[in-house]
Amino acid sequence: MADSADDLLARTRNALARWANAKPGTSAEWMSATDLVDAVTDLDALLSSGGPLPTAWADRAPSRPVTDVPGPDTVTADG
Q1: Domain limits at 34?
Q2: Inter-CA distances, 22 with 14, 27, 33, 39, 46, Å
Q3: Residue 57 lies in a domain
Q4: What distance in Å separates the CA atoms of residue 56 and residue 31, rounded to the nearest whole number?
Q5: Rounded to 5°, angle at Cα 69 from 68 and 75
Q6: Could you tell me which residues come within 8 angstroms of residue 11 by beta carbon, excluding any fewer than 6 positions away?
Q7: How buried is residue 71: exposed, middle or buried, by Cβ count under 10 Å (0-12/13-18/19+)?
Q8: Domain for residue 26, yes or no?
Q9: What is the spatial distance between Cα 3 and Cα 18, in angstroms, rounded to a whole number?
Q10: Could you give the number of structural domains in the chain?
Q11: More confident residue, 55 or 66
Q12: How far apart are CA 35 and CA 3, in angstroms?
């Protein structure tokens, strides 16, 4: 896996678009689905090993800060 994070994200997006546009049950659907799984697997491996985020993701922030999630002390069983 020598692709950069940007290359892997581009591969993922391309395969997703091809899969979404393929007719169900065709070889094009099967091939694009296989390409999509391969691209996501490679991107996951890169990110999981500490690799850099793709440029398109690098300057993004969560849509909601993680600190907004209720902690275990605020969750009740009778909720």
Answers
A1: 1-51
A2: 12, 9, 10, 17, 28
A3: no
A4: 26
A5: 130
A6: 3, 35, 38, 39, 42, 43
A7: exposed
A8: yes
A9: 20
A10: 1
A11: 55
A12: 14
User: Which residue from 71, 41, 43 is spatially nearest to 57, judged by alpha carbons?
Assistant: 43
| Residue 9, in any domain of the structure | yes
Distance CA 67, CA 72 (A): 12
Contact 6, 54 (CB under 8 A): yes
Residue 73 placed within a domain: no
Separation CA 32–CA 41 (nearest Å): 14
Q: Are the CB atoms for 67 and 43 separated by under 8 Å?
A: no
pLDDT digits (tens, 9 = 90+) for 18-64: 999 999 999 999 999 999 999 999 999 999 999 999 999 888 776 76
